[in-house]
Structure prediction request, 383 residues.
Amino acid sequence: MKPRANADAKVIPPSRRPRQMGFTMPAEYTTHEATWLAWPHNKDDWPGKFAPIPWVFAEVVRLVSRRERVEILVQNSAAQRQVRRILERVAVDFSNVRFHQQATDRVWLRDSGAIFLQRPMDPQSGSKKLETAASVFRFNGWAKYDNHAADGEIAPWMASRVNRSWNVWAPRAGAAARPFVLEGGSIDVNGDGCVLTTEECLLSKVQQRNPGLNKAAIETILRDFLGVEKVLWLDRGIAGDDTHGHVDDTARFVNRTTIAACVERDAADANYEPLAENLRRLKKMRNSHGEPFDIVELPLPAPVIFDGQRLPASYANFYAANVGILVPVFNDRKDALALTALQECFPNRPIIPVYCRDLVWGLGALHCMTQQQPAPVVVHYPV
Prediction:
């Protein structure tokens, strides 16, 4: 599908931005049309431990494709044939799988992919379906890695699959506008006007994404291009996270009024104080209706160390698919506690543990590797 040309200037007038046009980013826990994945190929991301990684991805595809389409990016036709053979061995139903030969640098499509938005169709059309669009933020390798050229092309390419999209540019006082940098793992929305993020990721000068933009300017862009009303700021992310503070390892919406937040009970652990500060902030936050959130505390596993490096292992990096809630587990005694807590958050949906101790050596897990495309007709899960 040929993308619709964006006739706007680089900085889109406020009246023509998604929020003002009635678009919003749906919550992940609502129904999906598809899940997007990029197949792993860069062995440098799992040095000395790449062999199990394709099988982790194959298991995710097997599970997710039971209830929604899975769109898989592969490097080329040879890679596609190889991936197909792997998926055949785990008995994937290919009627719900589509391949796309689109080059990638890494697999973390949550961060490099487009962010899908929706709004009701024109009431005069009589349709009950939702119109799907996309916001295209710049991906710059987490302001850390230089080899991100292929990944930088993914969001525009994904956005070309829908009829309407916006390239997000940010004005800067006394300087030329430039693309606004944002990764999907740095935000989480409740589908009811709120987005959760961290100051460490979006405001710090370390791995700085958008130099020259202050907090107010960033909030305006998040509101306008995610279609939200309130930006909720946590402090920091967890130890071992090389993105410098992504929220999806820290705290997540599980419904419009409830947030699952990681806590650390060991006062000697590096996560203790940052997560305690996050919890203090969460308890003071109010939703878009002025009401407090319900907070569910999630444990963290014991530190996952490999080759002398602490890894960003977190149960908050779950993925809410149509088939159920895929939760990373680490062969840790707290796995059961986390699964029980999340089952209470999603009482009418299956909780599906997926072993991720190998996967997280690549510094990401289930949420990092997935990007949802919302369904055109929403089916509300019972709560």
Observations:
- The chain is about 20% helix and 25% strand.
- The CA atoms of residues 300 and 314 lie 6 Å apart.
- Confidence is low (pLDDT under 50) at residues 1-8.
